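=== Discrete structure encoding ===
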Amino acid sequence: MNAQISFIEGQFSLIHIPLQLYSSLLQPILRVLLPHGGPTHSNEPEGLLEGLSIDNKHGFLNISVTPIECSIVCHTSWAQNVFAPVISRLPKEASKQCQISKDTYIVFSVSSAGMEAGQRVMDLTAPLAMAGIPIFFITTYYTDFILVPSKDRQTVGSALLARGFEFSENDSAYVAPTPMSHARIPSTTSDPPSTPPPSNVAELQIRTFSQLKKKNVVPFVEPGLHLVQCSGKEIVPGDDYPSRNGANGHVRSWLDNIDPKLYVGLISALSQQPRFLSLTLAQEDAPSLLIDKSLLWLFGNSIAGDTEGDLVPIFLDLVDLPLESTGIVCGVAGRLVDEMRLNEQHETSHGSELSYLSTARAGAVILSSEGSARALEALLPRLEKTEV
């Protein structure tokens, strides 16, 4: 695999919003979705916030609504100046239920063409999991993204170098020049974790499922919920979209490069509290969507991709696990990849395509409809309580 891992500038926060409080936080959700960057008043900080490009485009933003929670990953300045004030005005008990991560996170984008999706998730997360680094992983239409605590940035670099990556000064990225393997990865932290990291992927999987079972995490699917992964169309500047300021002094912004129908569809979907919607915005990519198929009609012809696809998410409610838990993504994905290989003769051509979505307090493994049924059969026996 020729993977390239690049650092996205900025410090980011994870925000957990319980579903029963979703409507109370809809205004800041829409505010971060549509950063106007224009003139501000004393109570409108957008023009002063960090994390936007010169054309007011987010360096990274993920908004996910699932059957477990609403989760936001945004630049810390937006978390503190847009979300925190609204949360603080909620009734005391409600305010306690919404959480903004105390620690900040950094985001790495991963370009890794040429590898089967499930193996990619496993191989990209293994070096970090086995170095004792907690991560969040988001698969999108174009790119994979890894979130790690800001304090672990140096350790991440050391772990990748130990795994055979090389740092490219020209690209400011870590590049894997050779196929990755599952050899032992030494821990490179100056302050080793209280529990020694696992010595191999098999041990990591055992630890992961032991931790999940101890916390009574049982994977489940939502009846009738089917997803598609797609992309918003980008508008190519032409006569109707000049690349420089027009005669009327209009300054081009990111809104000039997207289809307004896409954002009307997003606002319509978010306003009705969807069963499932995950939107990822990054400066280098067009908007990426993982969305409930029943909402596609809201978007008309503003999206591209396999809208006839049929993906089913398997959910893991991780609310009782600490944010610093390690190895969850790699352990679960690794087990499923192994199971898929054992059943390879039964797989369809798309059956083994696996995506992963980390949210603030949950995880979702996304597979084809057939693959999801087999994956659930593989996971449940390892996590169901043993009858006494």
